[in-house]
Structures are given as structure tokens and as C-alpha cells.
Amino acid sequence: MSKLSNAVAFLNHHLSLWRCPVCHQPFARVVDHSLVCPQNHWFDVNKKGTLNFLNHPVKTEYQKTMFTHRRHLLQAGFFTPFLQELAQYLPHAGNVIDVGCGEGTPTQLLSQLVPGNYIGFDIAKDGINLATQQVTRCFFCVADLTNLPFNNQQIDAVVDIFSPSAYQEFARVLAPHGVLLKIIPNRGYLHELREALYHGEDKATYDNHAILQRFMTIYPNALVQPITYHFALNDTTFHDLVAMTPLTWRASAQQLQSLFMQPLSQITVDVTLLVAKKD
């Protein structure tokens, strides 16, 4: 079957998951390769098997080149240890959404670790276009996390890896006893790269206090699990890291030149996994 046919089959089988982002009514039917709501708003599945739920294009710094390098680095195992930890809290055979999924590698890996119905979405079309190039059963779409195209209480797990959060929307779509799994960077995340580029500047350090405090205010009973490991770099993965992280996007030509003169041989992945269950 083509990607278009597979996507249409997924929508038909999981029609109850979706609601119209314009009028917020549940989609009533699939007509040919389009989702249609009772107010006659149509959203077409394209040939790549994706849907675009945005009302207008969104400008983003996250472009195809960055996503390509991110894919290479993640497929080399950069996120794998903390994704394996996160997967332990995923429901078996549940409906899972991956917020800000980018090029889809984490979504795909999680779907292999724990079976379920996985939907990845991002506002960046370049990321979603790359995500659909995988051989996968995951469904990918372009959508806004502040206006999720999902019906109330239909999602068993929300996965949020380094992405902004819309906690009110997450609470709306999560089913009773659903789980929110959020990964945030800690002070030591990529510290070798920060220090190499910005030694002596404020950008050489990072503090997640505000993000963590907000999460714990909303979910005071959440599990807080620090995860730290070192990832070995070779010439290829070092260049992928530099190209994919926003840390380098504001660096001067001189800072980047100095970095490439002494490439890093390893990098620290220092994150916290936050696990909150809905009552």
C-alpha cells in the first residue's frame, strides 16, 4: 500500500481520536483522502501520508538541513538511553502523541519499544516530511501544540522531549489515568559544547529551574528521574551535533572555527524525565 493509502486507513480506524482545529468538533468522516468535520472543514492527506492542521504557514528556524543532521545523530544512538527509560512508563497498545516530534526518530524508536498507536506532530513541515521517509506505522502531521487536533480524553500518553508545553491542552486530551512524559535538559546537558563555544559568557551555563518549577507546580506528585550518560563522538557525529543544536546557531564564525580546531570526542547527555499521571 502507498503512504497515502496507509494514512487513510489509519484515520478510518482511529477516527474517534481527532477533532477539527477550526471548530473543535469531532471529525465526522473520512471522504476519499480527507478528514471532514460536521461544519464541513476539510483536511487533505497528502501523497506523503501526512495531514497539515495549521491554518497558515509558520516560520521556524528548524529547517531540513538541521533535521537531517539530527536524524543522523539520533539514529547513531544519541537519545536512545533516555528513550529506553521513558519507554518503561508508556502504556501497552495505547494512543501516544509525540509533541514536537521533529524528524520522527524518537517516535519511531518508542513505537518499536512499546507497541501502540503513535502520532508525531510538529509545526515544522520539513521535520514531518523527513519523518514520513521512514518505514513506520507511526502517523505524522503538522499541528500546533496549543490547538491539538485530538478529541477530549482520547490520548493515553503525551511525550514531550525538549519541546514547549501546553499543559491545559495536554490535560484536555489525556484519558483518565493517562500519563505525561516530559524530558528537560539539566545543567550538564551538552556542557562541553557550551563551554567550548561560550567560555566566560552567560551562555556557557544553563538552568532549568523555571521549567521544572512550573511542571511541579502543576503536577506536585510527579516522578522526577535524572538521567546522565556520555556519548562518544567521531568526526561524523561531532559535525551532526554542531549542525543540529540551536546552541551553535548564535555562535560567531570565530567561535565555530575555534571549536572545529579542537573537536569534541564525547558529549554529556544530562536530562530529567518527568512523569505525571492524570487522575
TrEMBL record:
Q: Which UniProt keywords apply?
A: Metal-binding, Methyltransferase, S-adenosyl-L-methionine, Transferase, Zinc
UniProt-listed Pfam families: Methyltransf_25 (PF13649), Zn_ribbon_RlmA (PF21302)
Family annotation (Gene3D superfamilies): Vaccinia Virus protein VP39 (3.40.50.150)
InterPro entries from the xrefs? Methyltransf_25 (IPR041698), RlmA_N (IPR048647), rRNA_m1G-MeTrfase_A_prd (IPR016718), SAM-dependent_MTases_sf (IPR029063)
Positions bound to S-adenosyl-L-methionine? 79, 103-104, 189
Q: Where does Zn(2+) bind?
A: 20, 23, 37, 41
The highest taxon in the source lineage is: Bacteria
One example of the protein's molecular function in GO is: methyltransferase activity
| Methyltransferase domain location | 96-178
The answer to whether the entry has keyword Methyltransferase is: yes
Which GO BP terms sit in this record? methylation
* Signal sequence residues: none
Specify the protein name: Methyltransferase domain-containing protein
Is S-adenosyl-L-methionine one of the keywords? yes
Q: Which residue intervals define the domain 23S rRNA (guanine(745)-N(1))-methyltransferase N-terminal in the entry?
A: 19-54
Q: Which residues form a coiled coil?
A: none
